[in-house]
Sequence to fold (326 residues):
Amino acid sequence: MSPPEETVTTGNNSSVADGPQKVVLPITPFETYPKARAAPKELIGVEAALHAAKNPDFQAVSTIAGQFSLKDKVAIVTGGNSGIGLEYSVVLAELGAIVYVLDLPEAPSEDYAACKAYIKKLATGGSLEYRVANVTDGPGMAKVTHEIAETHGRLDVCIANAGILGPVVDCHEYPADWFRKIMEVNVTGVFLTAQAAIKEMLERKIKGSVIFTASMSGSIINKDMHWIPYTTAKAAVVQLAKAFACEVGTNEIRVNCISPGHIRTRMTEAYLGVEPLIENCWAAQNPMNRLGSVYELRGTVAYLASDASTYTTGHDLQVCGGHTAW
Ligand SMILES: NC(=O)c1ccc[n+]([C@@H]2O[C@H](COP(=O)([O-])OP(=O)(O)OC[C@H]3O[C@@H](n4cnc5c(N)ncnc54)[C@H](O)[C@@H]3O)[C@@H](O)[C@H]2O)c1
Fold:
């Protein structure tokens, strides 16, 4: 059924000689919309300044750093044993969170152990814990996530970061088994991780933040790198985030993507280590003419994981040196 139409008068785009234009817009009757939820109110920023102007005894305190705090929060990070996931885990723990790193190896890496010790020395109140988990194992992910949420009575942040890249093969020759494997880890794995975490958040009425590591490859095709399943999978991850975000928005659970550009990690080293000239090819495709370092994702994950981003959801935040601008 087509919506009712209403005639409105507008002066937009009209010259003085033409006078106001009559346009017809299809308008859903406003009374059919549900009542809007109230926007939250906090005595911070401009509100605090205006309050202080009328209340001289009001203690002026800067709150912006505190908005990024994850003190007493609990987080899980898949694929956190190395690379981007390990950096994300350190950021969350630096901000005060108890962070559970979920990854495949029976024993965590030396890099993880060094980070765990470093976080302990920083004494932020945060910590790193390690659990073996495979993101493609739905019941396993549900179990480990539930155990963590039960232990602390909460789960605030979930980063579905585990991923694999696969070989470069021309599209008409790409092995179907590899295609399936990459979709299984990079798409089904993200779905199962988010599903497990959101279930715990909903049951506990937690205003959680769920973050997917997608990729700029979800929006563009990597020139000269024939990675058809990887780019396809990452595009699916971007849509997955939007779909989850739209279902749980009124529960104040936010779901966003971080889409890195070319970052030097174990994953990309598999190519850069074999053919160093690939670096020039990748770098030349962004306006900054360089690859990114893992630490350059720190601010982005701090923003999305914390209360600094309470009105940001369904978003794909690209951190790619402007690669997608060209
Ligand atoms: N490095 C880049 O340039 C780049 C760019 C864009 C996106 N990404 C994405 O960032 C994420 C992390 O990649 P990285 O570069 O840090 O590489 P990485 O290889 O260092 O990290 C990937 C991690 O995922 C884990 N993992 C793989 N399969 C798993 C499974 N089934 N269950 C649990 N853990 C699993 C690995 O053990 C590893 O610790 C990936 O999703 C990747 O696609 C990387």
Notes: The longest strand covers residues 254-260. The domain at 72-325 is CATH 3.40.50.720 (Rossmann fold). Strands lie at 5-10, 21-26, 74-78, 98-103, 127-132, 157-160, 209-213, 254-260, 316-319. The chain has two domains: 5-54, 72-325.
